[in-house]
Amino acid sequence: MAKILVSDPSEGTKSPFLRGVLTRSVHEAGLSFEDAYKLASEIRDDLTDVGEITTSDLRERVIAHLSSAFGSKITQAYESSRRKTATILVRDHDNQVTPFSRSRHYLCLESCGLSSEDAATATARVYEHLLNEGEHEVSSGHIGHLTYCCLAKLFGVQTARRYMVWVQYTHSGRPLILLVGGATGSGKSTIATEIAHRLGIVRTQSTDMLREVMRMMVPERLLPVLHRSSFNAWQALPAQGEKALPAVVADGFRSQAELLSLPCEAVIQRALRERVSLILEGVHVHPALADRISGPDDAIIVPVMLAVLKPKDLKRRLQGRGSEAPKREAKQQLSFFDAIWDLQAYLLAEADRANVPIIANEDKDKAIHLVLHTIIDALAEGFSGTPRSVFI
User: Fold this and answer.
1) pLDDT single digits (tens) 2-41
2) Number of domains present in the structure of the chain
């Protein structure tokens, strides 16, 4: 693609059009990162045959796209961000000073379980208030308390309290271990990736990868159950028939999950020793795994079980895998659909017995919010902080 130049007549400069810069600009105005990236890509494609565009013309194109696709609220936030150039410096608890970032503030609010729209609204209100205060430098505690009051006014005290609980946790240094289980096709990897992005967790681990490493180390003739999928591991057990009865499917899964339990525990224990947060996801994240974890008393262990509760929806997901990622053996998964469904029923029964939250993953955004709420609820157990103790 030919380089597109953006000229600024007032300063007599020309610079290349950078999609990342435009993405960040509209993201800071309140658009989700995905929508911001998509909009920036569309504008770049529109400019393919232009070659050069002025900053004002580019801004008008962005405003037109925003107005057409996202309405007046986001458009006004973008226009406001373009007009106001004042830099607000924030001094944190370690006496470090950085410019106030609307994108980081927005992401923090999403971490508390707010929807993208609500987070954008609150961030815009907080930023507007800071500008109106006219202060060049403020403390991070002041911004936190201002955000708390804003959330209480806009969305109620429970939302504000969730924010307060999250802020207190971010200052605590406590490790968070999120265990995401679920049968094949339940969306574990997708949800785990989104949660990691929103919470800033850099360490994630899939039990499928652990199983693959073990397969490289142990030949199939020694441990045939390890070299099967979770839903057909029963076929490698001795004295099994040809029919995948629910109890037989569960037996095969338990045999394979037991082999994976040791590496799963090792990954978790290392994260706890290093006091870093971790997301472990996979079908082998059995509800009983949380009970085997021994670590520091202040560690937060949060297990969740994802589910797709309608057979037609789960089958549609598996079919979608065939068109998007043929290497994931979607055809084989569909041929074992009844076994996958029976395995999910077993996992949900085990989760219910262990009081592990079951989250229906019918809508990705809703499921993400429910997982985030579950994490905040776990953090809130025993929480007795006040706005003054947390923010001041």
Assistant:
1) 578 888 776 566 777 878 778 878 887 888 888 888 998 8
2) 3
